Prior knowledge:
Helix content is 63%, strand content 5%. It is globular. It is built from 9 helices and 4 strands; from the N terminus they run ββαααβααααααβ. Residues 3-7, 101-124 and 201-206 have low confidence and may be disordered. By secondary structure, the chain is mainly alpha-helical. It has helices at 12-20, 24-46, 50-68, 80-99, 125-137, 140-150, 155-161, 167-186, 189-195, and strands at 2-4, 7-9, 74-75, 200-201.
Amino acid sequence: MKRMNSQEFYTSNEIIEGLKNNDRSVLTFIYRSYYPVVAGILKRDYGTTYEKTRDYFQEAMLAIFTCLNTNQTLTVNYSFLTYLMVICKRRMLDDMRRKKEVKLQANKHEIPDPSFTAHDIMIKDERIKLVHNHFLKLGEKCRQIMTLFLKGFSNREITEKLNMSSEHYTKKRRHLCKVSLFNSIVNDQRFKELANGRSCSLRKLS
């Protein structure tokens, strides 16, 4: 971790390790530093609402957590922000395609590499939808806990917001919710078909 202008800055690999270890500071960094950038680009170029961008962003984060918690290999060789931007934009474009709202145009923010692995679990729309569908199947309390957790809230803050009995209970409940979500996903036959033994790899940008 480095500091730039009194702000924390993480490398892509540090972010991945932080997500694996449920590092709150890394989650906070992602939401505070990257979400505004993604939302700004989608708003500027496509008029996407901040509410929709928040959905795309959260789906992307859930997909990343799925990859990191299913013993798949995740290699990051370029900007984590760029990776998030690609996932969110692909999700947005697929939404547009289904709704027939606009004609697909050239992706000015796309990775300039025709061999980019669009097969990866985090990018394929069907895989992202699969994660989202299983998230929606969680109980209401689990969805609330996971949503706040992914936004970078601490166990104390989650405990206060949801009126839970203690931080210890919140931490335990969050872990159980997370395990429930991932078990639900990996035991889905569709997940096995979509994953097809592929690794969650990121190709180099530069």
